[in-house]
Queue: 2 jobs
Job 1
Amino acid sequence: MNQKNDNKTTTERKSDLELVATRTFDALPHIVFKAWTTPELFIRWWVPKSGGMTLISCEMDVRLGGGYSLEFGHPAFDKPMIFFGKYIEVTPNQRLAWTNEESDEGPLTVVTFEEKDGQTLLTLTETYPTKQALEASLGGIEAAAEQFEQLDAILLGLCVGE
């Protein structure tokens, strides 16, 4: 493992339908991929702690055609929010793509894991069906910086055993 990662998350609106977040992680792609595809790890970093939400449950069947379900709770919610969809592409340690089927406005999400000098350049792209859907979800992509900082902490622990 290299020295502490000083790279920051960048987020960019690429078009009226597309948002992109990137970050370089101080871990190899197979370790970063594991954190994205193992429910016990994913549940520890996916929800930004500052928002007061919790990820109550996380089910993942990470294979082509497999599904996922994420149940979120918050003190202000009457009932938990559930996000779900299907994996439409799974290339281990390189690429994940999934649908977000909780509404007609859900994006297609693609995450790539590219090795660069012993680190992983992660690119998360969300493509929305309409400009309005993208506008309504801008807070989610802006939370990526905090999510990815939390992921950094998880990766540090996973890399110790490498």
Note: The longest strand covers residues 81-91.
Job 2
Amino acid sequence: METSRFEKICKAVEANRRLIFTAHDYIWEHAESGFKEWETTAYLEKGFESLGYELHRAGDIPGFYTDWDTGKPGPKILVIGEMDSLIIPQHPAARKDTSCVHACGHHAQSAALLGLAAALQTDGIKDGLCGSVRLMAVPAEELTELEYRETLRAKGTIRYFGGKQEFLRRGYMDGVDMAFMVHTSYGDGSFEFPNRGDDGFLIKTIEFIGKATHAGISPHLGVNALLAQQLAISAMNALRETFIEEDYARLQLGNINGDSLSCRLDVKIRAATIEKINRINAQVNRAVAGAAASIGAEVRISDRPGYMPLYNDRLLGDVFCAAANLLDPDHPVKMGDDWSAGCTDMGDISELIPSIHPYCMGAGGRAHTAEYYIESVEKACVMSAKSQMVMLQLLLENNAEKARFILDAKQPKFKSKEDLFSVIDRMAVDRDLIDTNENGSITLKI
């Protein structure tokens, strides 16, 4: 890239530093959980419209997208900013009314997206470029408040729990050729790209149903659901030693509640491929059904798809690294070969088109904890916006030579979103795991 062009791009972002910092502070102070980001959406909508953008609003859920066009035909690149927060009551900055706090840095992404939108409107930025850019503010990446999302699903407002999944289903990503987002992280330098991919996961709710009795007079006639749950947890824990290291499998238990008559347990199953997730899920069903049957309890499961595994595109990743190294040559970045057991609904997009999920620095403390904060807004937001501006320049200059090269080499996991969703939909299951027969015997439905 020519030095003069690089400097022009950086100055276009720097000219909007105040806009970026103000957005960062506002969204931090107005943190909202998934599918509730109405204040954040309204703030960003006002900012985008003041810059001259026409918005396509999701309407019944938060979020929107808009297109920036060079006026010359070429690839369409999707740039994403996430809006939702976590719920951490112990965090010193958590909202008093909702306990929401941006302990993963999504507010910085949104501020950077607004800064990027402003910089793209600078005179002369379109010169020498072709194609278009879709800027998208998405809700609900953090998978929190599952009962609330289930109510939205039951009403038909959403079909999928992740914001990117839902936007994909609604057609908001139709016609897009590749996608990227830059997530906030912490560490030395300005950028990092350690992982070739992330796990996918499935969410499982298990209900154990006992039988009422008088505990003192007729304990032999009752079944304690809590004991069935306890046995099931022991059985699931016994599975862990059978997990294969290269599967990057994780089995996480949470939200245990109930009483001796009925109790519930939430389980999250993570692994590197959907096939491995389904295999482990079958093992969990067997363990849970066997444990419950051993004392005569009934058990019901409700499985819901989480997110698909993320596969970072190597060639698109090289473009990010090139942009990062132009911006911070003292801390060179290259795309790593590590695999992460973290999960993101960016994975669902990566199953269809070249996609990446790299990181910019600026945070302090561990993500998803009460110690998280933004240490440097300059790094977390301004440098993030600059990296995205430089990426777009590298992809769309010279008749989009780099973008076309990436597209020529792409090998999507699925040919269409319909094929993708057919696999995802099969993960949604509601059923009993035990049938009691007329003769008193039982059948495990595993």
Note: The chain has two domains: 3-197+309-413, 200-306+424-444.
